[in-house]
Amino acid sequence: MYLCDIHSHSQISPDCDVPLTDMVQAAVKAGLREFCVSDHHDLLDFGGLPAAPFDWPAAKEQYRAVKDAAGEKLTLRLGLELGSAPYDPQAAREALAQGGEELDFVLGSLHNWIGMEGNRDLYFSDFHRNMALARKVMESTLEHTWTLVSQMPDCYDSLAHIVYPLRYIHRDGVELSIEDYEEQVRAIFTEIARTDHALEVNVWAGRDLDSWPLLLGWFRECGGRLVTVGADAHCPEHVACGIPQALEMVKGAGFDHVATYEHRRPVLHKL
Ligand SMILES: [Zn+2]
Ligand SMILES: [Zn+2]
Prior knowledge:
By secondary structure, the protein is an alpha/beta fold. Helices cover 36% and strands 18% of the residues. The protein binds zinc ion (ZN) (2 copies).
């Protein structure tokens, strides 16, 4: 099994203060063969305001220094978790262009409301006893996800955590299932497959192992071929957490390989 975790954060992200060197040390300790730092660049910040440009100079400086130090211990890649790309396609494309040749991997994310609820991160919404708001956020997020995959395929390599709204819907005790949205999700998966992009199994540091068998089954039925795995760690203790289980689930769903990315092209590793 090729142990890889290609969704992880460092001090370049606004919600993480850990130097990349500490995350990589944890990755080596966990026995990872490949690790990708994918710091946040959300076009909308937590509060819903347009964000400042991504600090590529700092991200690249940190990446180069740690890559040199890591040497042969593991393969280190430079990624970006690009949030809310449909909010401002031009800004999204400019940010990716600045990543240049060194950019290996782009996760496409939607963390925010777009065009409603003050464009805030879903984290700040209160879904307690509010099924209407929960349904609204699922519909809105899936609609923007459809925009991303159908109109902006150059702005992502792997679709990150499609279940993101459910993190907070379930946190607030509302019972809603992705199964209620099967038609929309399958349409998204079919488009991801058609354009030869990847689906991410995001195990959220081991906190979400249950969502994926069903979704992987749908993705495979929709013609999906490329799957990436990520723990979405924001601290060293979470690096690789849940990754062995994720790889087992990918294999169990009938996929022969897990994908990692180099220069934004998939590299397949036998499971
Ligand atoms: Zn995310
Ligand atoms: Zn993340």
